Amino acid sequence: MKTLTHSSKLPHLGTSIFTTMTGLANEYNAINLSQGFPEFDAPERLKQGLAKYCNQGFNQYAPSSGIAPLQAQIAALTERTYGTNINPLDTVTVTSGATEALFVAIQTITHPGDEIIIFDPAYDSYKPAIELAGGHAVHIAMQAPDYAIDWQHVAAAITDRTRGIIINTPHNPSAKTLKQAEFDELKKLVSKHQLLLISDEVYEHIAFEGTPHISVLSDPELFSRAFVIASFGKTFHCTGWKMGYCIAPEALTQEFRKIHQYVTFSSFTPAQLALTDMLAEESEHITALAPFYQHKRDLLVSALQESRFTILPSEGTYFLLLDYSEISPLDDMAFCEYLIKEVGVAAIPLSVFYQSAPNDKVIRLCFAKEDDTLLQAAQMLTTL
């Protein structure tokens, strides 16, 4: 019998760090502050809506771009939040999670040999999606403690093969937010070099200290060449539903939808209907989201004040970074394994988000957990 041989399209990839750390957390019964999912449930109204529409028989395919009422509610939310008026039928595409939207947007703009600039530490789906499209990810590193973008470095990295830039704000994993001055620098570059932009804004409603998130949607010049990605899972604590969307100008949306229809075609119909009602009736949930998570951030920060960790600023998302250089000489992967096995808390090492990791001794905690869980974890971490 002839032996089957197969050449991997992603030979350098293995099991994700999130699967690895969650598996270890389960094995050692550790408190899991590693993977970024809420410990608490979705809003009751949203769950009731899902059950209602399932029971009423809305269980078949939705239109590929999303049901029109949900598209309209997304457009209304965009206008309320950013003052931007869009045509929902031509610019809004509902997707099976934000990661699908990111994948499709990357496939849409990337041709073989194209270069796409990404900022490390970066969400781990960007690079594989670029490579599957035949492109090359150009990594611009940001470093602790401020994780600032060196715009001169970005400008120097642009070549005649550069096709686009991916930004992420509020940023996972650094928990930083892009400021207006940084958007001004970005605008200069994309305009000068006629670049496309993918803006990952899945944590858009989780920006702290009363400072509003700045969206590409609020800047007509940037939006004219952009795909803006959002997540219902992050906003409504329902990550397992895998519901997100992409907003882009009509011409870019047409190209996006050509690929989207052959990835998932359409997304979960009862969830689309339930989310439509939620957006129409429960805007308070969205406005309360930042204070809700800021309380959890502050609770965890306060509980860690007596520890030997250096706490880095968290301006948005539901993540907090800790520098452990005063505690251990271990590299961050080994230190996270130690935390799980010996301390009972699971975290994520920052080095996995880099192509070439710096020597920073930094780990990421997720505080989308019940208050008691956060306090228990902090008590364990302060013993180090």
Automatic annotation (TrEMBL):
<dbReference type="GO" id="GO:0005737">
    <property type="term" value="C:cytoplasm"/>
</dbReference>
<dbReference type="GO" id="GO:0016212">
    <property type="term" value="F:kynurenine-oxoglutarate transaminase activity"/>
</dbReference>
<dbReference type="GO" id="GO:0030170">
    <property type="term" value="F:pyridoxal phosphate binding"/>
</dbReference>
<dbReference type="InterPro" id="IPR004839">
    <property type="entry name" value="Aminotransferase_I/II_large"/>
</dbReference>
<keyword id="KW-0032">Aminotransferase</keyword>
<feature type="domain" description="Aminotransferase class I/classII large">
    <location>
        <begin position="30"/>
        <end position="378"/>
    </location>
</feature>
<dbReference type="InterPro" id="IPR015422">
    <property type="entry name" value="PyrdxlP-dep_Trfase_small"/>
</dbReference>
<protein>
    <submittedName>
        <fullName>Aminotransferase class I and II</fullName>
    </submittedName>
</protein>
<dbReference type="Pfam" id="PF00155">
    <property type="entry name" value="Aminotran_1_2"/>
</dbReference>
<keyword id="KW-0663">Pyridoxal phosphate</keyword>
<dbReference type="InterPro" id="IPR051326">
    <property type="entry name" value="Kynurenine-oxoglutarate_AT"/>
</dbReference>
<dbReference type="InterPro" id="IPR015421">
    <property type="entry name" value="PyrdxlP-dep_Trfase_major"/>
</dbReference>
<dbReference type="InterPro" id="IPR015424">
    <property type="entry name" value="PyrdxlP-dep_Trfase"/>
</dbReference>
<comment type="similarity">
    <text>Belongs to the class-I pyridoxal-phosphate-dependent aminotransferase family.</text>
</comment>
<keyword id="KW-0808">Transferase</keyword>
